[in-house]
Amino acid sequence: MSDLTKLTLADAVDGLKAKTFSSEELTQAFLGEIASANPTLNAYVEVTGEKALAQARASDAKLAKGEGGDLEGAPLGIKDLFCTEGVQTTAGSNMLRGFVPPYESTVTANLWRDGAVMLGKLNMDEFAMGSANETSAFGPVVNPWKAQGDDAQLTPGGSSGGSASAVAANLCLAATASDTGGSIRQPAAFTGTVGIKPTYGRASRFGMVAFASSLDQAGPITKTVKDSAILLKSMCSFDTKDSTSLDVPTPDWAASVGQSVKGLRIGVPAEYLIDGMPEEIKKLWEQGVEWLKAAGCEIVQISLPHTKYALPTYYIVAPAEASSNLARYDGMRFGHRAEEFTSLDDLYAASRAEGFGKEVQRRLTIGAYVLSAGFYDAYYVRALKVRRRIAEDFDNVWGKVDAILTPSTPSAAFKLGDKQIDPLTMYLNDVFTVTTNLAGLPGISVPAGLDSKGLPLGLQIIGKALDEDTVFKVAGAIEDAAGFVSKPAKWW
Amino acid sequence: MSANATILKGRTGDWEIVMGLEIHAQVASNSKLFSGAAVGFGAGPNEQVSLVDAGFPGMLPTLNRFCVEQAVKSGLGLRAQINLKSQFDRKNYFYPDLPTGYQISQLYHPIVGEGVVEVEAEDGTFFNVGIERLHLEQDAGKLIHDLSPTDSYVDLNRAGTALMEIVSRPHIRSPEQAVAYVKKIRTILMYLGTCDGDMEKGNLRADVNVSVCPVGNYDKFMETGDFGFLGTRCEIKNVNSFRFISQAINYEARRQIEIVEDGGKVDQETRLYDPTKGETRSMRSKEEAQDYRYFPDPDLLPLVLEQTWVDGLKASLPELPDDKRRRLMDQYGLSQYDAIVLISEQAKADYFEAAAKGRDAKLVSNWVTNEISARLAADNRDFSDNPLPAAHVAELVELIETGVISSKIAKEVFDYVWKGEGSPSEVVEKHGLKQVTDTGAIEKAVDDLIAANPDKAAAVAEKPQAIGWFVGQVMKATGGKANPAAVNHILKAKLGL
């Protein structure tokens, strides 16, 4: 029954409703795949087989009575950033190894409300800080894709590397992920999957281990645009437990996917054509423009002049918030605590030095630095001003365009270990994605083609705040035109 | 107590003290500032802690609307600017009583801005203290070190409780002024119901910033706004009673003067007051001062208030102490002193007003501020917890006014009433304490007295002030119930004066 794992979320939900197969069968199929693949791909940090089967049986009982929610019986993977009641939640860190929250994140609670089944917790960069899934305390995740004629293992991207790899390798129907600077869209692009970061405030951050509060948003990684629309709808809700949650209705986005994009005005920002961009990425972008033109869109050349400041701004704002958000990991109430210490300060220092990996420590140090007396105005306050300008750049073009088309990443998936030595090169991965986090806008990555080595590449569609509807429409059009059906050849 | 600035004599000249106070007042609220956890005194350790308070991963703060309302009311009570847009900031530092590693406070954009508080000194004069700001912030938990020789324990019940920090301008010039200022703030907050003012439980506490400067420099500072005219300040923490405030300031000012006169420099630092030794000692120097890395809390949106909402709160405010003082003086013809004593406690003023209706207000005020206040104090109670109905006081004063009892007998009547023997009229009836105004009875007593003391009666003609002895004797003979005016009149007639 391993074919079941190749189903899209939409088809699986339909099949479950039609009782073509049971949730238990489907869940068993995924657990089987995970058992064989995970030792190689390392996508899951914990597989919750028994819980999954119990949920599956409960779903089958509901389905048998013709009941059940939008995701009834659908086995999903959950990024280990979402707190799951009674199930270890680590955020990919030794700091939280063994931490079992007595509470459920709002996003996952919404999924269980709609009948989803949890297969397990997905690997990720430590505290979502990374673009290659190499900072995880549980080791790197491996991309199921390989370059033609090269056996080297590639990164699935990060920080939601586990989510992307699991979806691409059919280790779940779809997965939750989170995106602070590109952590959904970059891994989606690297693995030939679809990933959307919704408008800031659509998905509740309650129970999501925080990285940078003003940038963090949950979203799905899925096999198709429609699947993303379905899963995102379940994930989003207004939540009084999150002060930044938006009190807006969650539309039925799946209905938009496949609708005509005729007459939509699509912006192409000059500033995203960066120096050193691989020709293949440029070509793919041009191809995307042609596809949309052919589908009846009007193409508008636009300028987002502050784009070049987005990456430095992001690498001030995000570490600053992180340096404060991660202060709670002090060895006092939960998480790792050093066994040997000489004083209170030493206990803090030792616990955090042992519990946090190098990249987390680097960012916390940067964050503490940019907030410190004498530097606060020069770095943090200035970054907030630039952030406002970046948001205004978008505001200024929305009168002229309905959505914006850009590449998702400046490259295809690279080799594991390739960029570890140089954090700055690693940070460049986020160059096309951080702008939407800074501006709070929705952005989706859709697989649009393969590069010359046979690796997937993605295109990004950015929309107005709360206009995921248009984003899904355009993404659907790209998906249709690209006809991207490639899957990684199974080698694991 | 006076409103005058203290001048301290040093070896090299005269010095004055300049002070600014930071008052931390716990918001009267049933739940915490950013979580639904209960607030209360006396719960077991860590029984009033939510996952938000304990800083668990993924937990987020949500602002308690009632605490905001309380802060705005307090700001209105301080006649201060209400900022329709304010923002919460994080103050970052590590300590085991601070679970998230940061305190949510309002550094950059407080909810309440500039205001002025008029403070009355006990000599009846007034002085103004500028308010720089009032902001909302979280309290921390509590460390307990004495349960074990090797371990420290953390109680997070208090963690996340809402505090209002009220920061004054450096307009306070003497220990007496400092005390009067804290009392005034406390009274205002208690009138508003925004803080219970319980200093013993630490629900209202003050940090005092003290500096000294040569006499004359303060005026120059006030003229120019140049802090260079003032000395280096030290922040004194842990001054949790009126007595300690005064003692700590005196000690600290003397310490600073000695340093400066010895040619030294006062270090800007935080000092802790030790009430058992009566001295302040260094907690941390400026160099050791932490860099709190304040920045706007990204988990919380800016707090935006509607002017109409603020106006609604303003309209619902109770009468404030200053207004009450003026009204009591106008309406009841009370002296400023009496009015100030009455308004010091809202329940006391209310009690007075309840008893004073249609009665001699001055007389009622005397009873309330003297006898009843003293009895309550002796029983360790206050007016909110007063067992004596105001109607009894009104009745007692009525009995005096109508001449049914004398002021002297009234004290006796009050004793019985306080003991719970009934209303003043019942007590007068029961113990036969009615004043004798029947001239026949008084005349008989006078006649008997003169007959029994012919020599004394004769002497009165020579020495009229000796009539006092006769008055005393008649009062004694009538059990104190005779109307003193009638006794005087009859005595004078019978003794031929």
Automatic annotation (TrEMBL), chain A:
Keyword Cell wall biogenesis/degradation in annotation: no
Superkingdom field: Bacteria
Pfam families for this protein: Amidase
InterPro entries: Amidase (IPR000120), Amidase_CS (IPR020556), Amidase_dom (IPR023631), AS_sf (IPR036928), GatA (IPR004412)
The reaction(s) this protein catalyses: L-glutamyl-tRNA(Gln) + L-glutamine + ATP + H2O = L-glutaminyl-tRNA(Gln) + L-glutamate + ADP + phosphate + H(+)
Record key words, sorted: ATP-binding, Ligase, Nucleotide-binding, Protein biosynthesis
EC number of the protein: 6.3.5.7
Residue ranges constituting the Amidase domain according to the UniProt record: 25-471
HAMAP family for the chain: GatA
Family, as annotated: Belongs to the amidase family. GatA subfamily.
Function: Allows the formation of correctly charged Gln-tRNA(Gln) through the transamidation of misacylated Glu-tRNA(Gln) in organisms which lack glutaminyl-tRNA synthetase. The reaction takes place in the presence of glutamine and ATP through an activated gamma-phospho-Glu-tRNA(Gln).
Subunit (UniProt): Heterotrimer of A, B and C subunits.
Record-given protein name: Glutamyl-tRNA(Gln) amidotransferase subunit A
Originating organism: Brevundimonas terrae
TrEMBL record, chain B:
Species of the source: Brevundimonas terrae
Listed EC numbers: 6.3.5.-
InterPro entries reported for this sequence: Asn/Gln-tRNA_amidoTrfase_suB/E, Asn/Gln-tRNA_Trfase_suB/E_cat, Asn/Gln_amidotransferase, Asn/Gln_tRNA_amidoTrase-B-like, GatB, GatB_C_1, GatB_Yqey_C_2, Gln-tRNA_amidoTrfase_suB_CS
NCBIfam families: gatB, PRK05477.1-2, PRK05477.1-4, PRK05477.1-5
UniProt record similarity statement: Belongs to the GatB/GatE family. GatB subfamily.
Every Asn/Gln amidotransferase domain range: 350-495
Coiled-coil segments on the chain, per record: none
PANTHER family: GLUTAMYL-TRNA GLN AMIDOTRANSFERASE SUBUNIT B MITOCHONDRIAL AND PROKARYOTIC PET112-RELATED, GLUTAMYL-TRNA(GLN) AMIDOTRANSFERASE SUBUNIT B, MITOCHONDRIAL
Function as written in the Swiss-Prot or TrEMBL entry: Allows the formation of correctly charged Asn-tRNA(Asn) or Gln-tRNA(Gln) through the transamidation of misacylated Asp-tRNA(Asn) or Glu-tRNA(Gln) in organisms which lack either or both of asparaginyl-tRNA or glutaminyl-tRNA synthetases. The reaction takes place in the presence of glutamine and ATP through an activated phospho-Asp-tRNA(Asn) or phospho-Glu-tRNA(Gln).
Pfam families, sorted: GatB_N (PF02934), GatB_Yqey (PF02637)
Catalytic activity annotation: L-aspartyl-tRNA(Asn) + L-glutamine + ATP + H2O = L-asparaginyl-tRNA(Asn) + L-glutamate + ADP + phosphate + 2 H(+); L-glutamyl-tRNA(Gln) + L-glutamine + ATP + H2O = L-glutaminyl-tRNA(Gln) + L-glutamate + ADP + phosphate + H(+)
Alphabetically ordered keywords of this record: ATP-binding, Ligase, Nucleotide-binding, Protein biosynthesis
Oligomeric and partner information: Heterotrimer of A, B and C subunits.
EC primary class: ligase
Record protein name field: Aspartyl/glutamyl-tRNA(Asn/Gln) amidotransferase subunit B
Keyword Nucleotide-binding: yes
